[in-house]
Amino acid sequence: QVQLVESGGGLVPPGGSLRLSCAASGYIFNFSELNWYRQAPGKQRESVATITTESWTDYASSVKGRFTISRDNAKKMVYLQMNNLRPEDTAVYYCNLREIGSGIQYWGQGTQVTVSS
Q1: CA-CA distance, 86 to 71, in Å (whole number)?
Q2: Could you say which DSSP state residue 89 is in?
Q3: What is the rounded CA–CA span in Å between residue 5 and residue 24?
């Protein structure tokens, strides 16, 4: 069974930085695509960043150049470094794991990020 636990959210002023972490359990981590999603109040959940098993990355246009996703297979961790945060980045951020092959997805419980002065 795969479990994902996010941490690192909080309140930060505009222009600030946060680093989100997601700890994963389960043997499939190294064979999985990892993603960060976010959901703001009243909005649909949206993809923010993706990192493949080969560490190829992709980002939503709204965060490109400000956010960086990375993974540590040995520690079974995925990170999201968020710089130059804006009020519109305020949302609950979710870690997502998609197993290559089966396509089965797992989700974390989410961590709140609030950007406000």
Answers
A1: 24
A2: G
A3: 7
Q: Does the pLDDT value for residue 112 go beyond 80? A: yes
Q: Please state, in angstroms and rounded to a whole number, the distance separating the CA atoms of residues 1 and 26.
A: 6
Q: Which amino acid is at 99?
A: E
Query: pLDDT tens across 72-108, in order?
Result: 999 999 999 999 999 999 999 999 999 998 889 999 9
Strand-strand pairing, 111-115 and 10-12:
parallel
Q: Which of 76, 71, 78, 95 is nearest to 26 (CA)?
A: 76
**DSSP secondary-structure letter at 63?**
T
116 vs 101: CA distance, rounded Å: 41
Taking a C-beta distance cutoff of 8 angstroms, is the pair 79, 69 a contact? yes
